[in-house]
Automatic annotation (TrEMBL), chains A, B:
Keywords: Autocatalytic cleavage, Hydrolase, Protease. Heterodimer of an alpha and beta chain produced by autocleavage. Belongs to the Ntn-hydrolase family. The keyword Mitochondrion does not apply. Pfam families: Asparaginase_2. One of its GO terms (molecular function) is asparaginase activity. This is Isoaspartyl peptidase/L-asparaginase-like. GO terms for biological process: L-asparagine catabolic process via L-aspartate; proteolysis. Substrate binds at residues 211-214, 234-237. The active site is at 183 (nucleophile). The keyword DNA damage does not apply. SUPFAM superfamilies: N-terminal nucleophile aminohydrolases (Ntn hydrolases) (SSF56235).
Length: 322, 322
């Protein structure tokens, strides 16, 4: 028997002070949501459902629905002022995975990712194909305006005002100071040691249409294997893709390193080899939790053994009774 | 100084007898094309260009243009009878990468992948966004009919005749016997130990619109890092994605294992954990070459030190003078 745990993150980046409180409340609520979904299973209240995958999905849906995060509602805008979202979910027991890239007009990309996992032979569907698949499975199409916040519009406007648009649209750019990341994610292990992960994002402000980042990539935005554990990452997507960050972290975990030092190892490699920064949450199949980030801040929270843990600043770790 | 080498593959699958000769001629020609492109650099004939990335691109363009392979011209068809292609290219020196997913109507997806690598901040562009980017960079749009061979049409017709179409479009399917893979790829190391990889595919017959497989995923379809070496994979895409096969193989290479046994390790893990089959080619930054496959056959060829090596059956290794 493993002490079950639900760990969530709300993105690794600078996180300006005006968003601290709302972001922390958001990750705490999402951890409760996922843990609550799990409890049904642990207590045997539900005979069907209530798996670690259900918990991961429930937490990420909660984060997608919260407009403070760059996922689902609140997603940042592409250069042409659209919302295009990426998401992944992985069942560590079977290593089955589902993902969507550059999907539009749906409230919860992670739900579509789960449909891809469960209803197709494929792992990843992108663009119009992903939207058509979602529609065929009864996922409601929403007006894109529903997903767009005033903060997302302001951030894109600021980006366009201070950057040379033509150059930045199709050429290499300096990273604009306004392009924060509030990608969200969750990792879970249940009492039987079954692990899962889910990650969801709107990507980066002013990204080119059709850009897919690390989030929906197995081994980059997430990884789960019951033989080791589960990881969800956040940060500079292209660096995370090059580093195969989630796979790197689980590989180190597999050598017997602690979960936290495995994350530190992965982030250190990404910084030294690729000059990239980010963060990750992870859980081992034994229920050991780790969170770490090389960015100024990352919001995270987890629930285990009746306690709620959370933090946003480096070395901050607050514990509350549930 | 490293003894430079160009290694190519033409896909790991059953490869029916009527395609053996054409496939072998194709990989031999592609190895020559890439090596020739490299020679310009090694001899100092060209002062610009001629990098390992140029060699990898040149080989894969040669394979994309050959209708016997499932990449570029000759790509298999989606369930709705379209060609949607995936490709990646990685420069192991910087670990910069470029990729396209579900791109249509271009002759050489690998060239667009290289443009993504060199002209954007991103790694992956998919669907319409990838096509718009290609057009903005002067890549000619072609009539999709140009890419479609009679073999591709026959293979899809056979699939549809023997499978329940509605069920298979949006539900889990048995792998049809007709869905072979002739994904193509190349790995290169030059005299300075600079590595690169490139992989390109039309995917699998009757795939759902928008399906992206392993090929354009860093760490799945390819990986390159001058500190270790370069890998290009082929086989069942979804299994390769779950296994992060290319990253797995380079990780094992990084421990000091031989290139061949690193590939064998990766394929054995994929078979035991995920029940997946495939093949890979790899080269270390020291110029050591390896090829291996767990499918019935894989066409491969390489050129090193004035010799052309090639094979298609297990344990077959033919050597010719250049």
């Amino acid at each position: 028997m493993v002490e079950p745990v639900v760990v969530v993150h709300g993105g690794a980046w600078a996180v300006p002070e005006e968003l601290w409180d709302e972001s922390l409340q958001g990750v705490k609520a999402a951890a409760r949501r996922g843990y609550g979904a799990s409890i049904h299973c642990y207590c045997g209240v539900l005979t069907a459902g209530g798996s670690s995958v259900d918990a991961a999905e429930a937490s990420v849906v909660c984060l997608e629905d919260n407009p403070v995060f760059d996922a689902g509602t609140g997603s940042v805008l592409t250069f042409d002022e659209q919302v295009e979202m990426d998401a992944i979910i992985i069942d560590g027991t079977t290593m089955e995975a589902g993902a969507v890239g550059a999907i539009r007009n749906v409230l919860n990309p992670v739900k579509v990712a789960r449909l891809v996992m469960e209803k197709t032979d494929h792992i990843m569907l992108v663009g119009d194909g992903a939207n058509k698949f979602a529609a065929a499975h009864g996922v409601q199409e929403v007006d894109p305006e529903v997903l767009i916040t005033s903060l997302a519009r302001q951030t894109l406007a600021k980006y366009k005002k201070y950057t040379s648009t033509v150059y930045h649209l199709f050429n290499k750019t300096e990273k604009p100071e306004t392009s924060g990341h509030e990608t969200v994610g969750c990792v879970v292990v249940d009492r039987e040691g079954h692990t899962s992960c889910a990650t969801s994002t709107g990507g980066i402000t002013a990204k080119m249409p059709g850009r897919v980042g690390d989030t929906p990539i197995v081994g980059a935005g997430g990884f789960a294997d019951d033989q080791v554990g589960a990881v969800s990452t956040t940060g500079h997507g292209e660096a995370i893709m090059k580093a195969c960050l989630a796979r790197h972290i689980t590989s180190v975990m597999g050598t017997g390193e602690s979960v936290k030092s495995s994350i530190q190892n992965g982030l250190a490699h990404m910084e030294s080899r690729i000059k990239g920064f980010g963060g990750a949450i992870a859980v081992s199949c034994k229920g050991e939790v780790g969170t770490h980030f090389s960015t100024p801040r990352m919001t995270w929270a987890y629930i285990q053994a009746g306690k709620l843990h959370y933090g946003i600043h480096p070395n901050q770790h607050v514990t509350e009774d549930l």
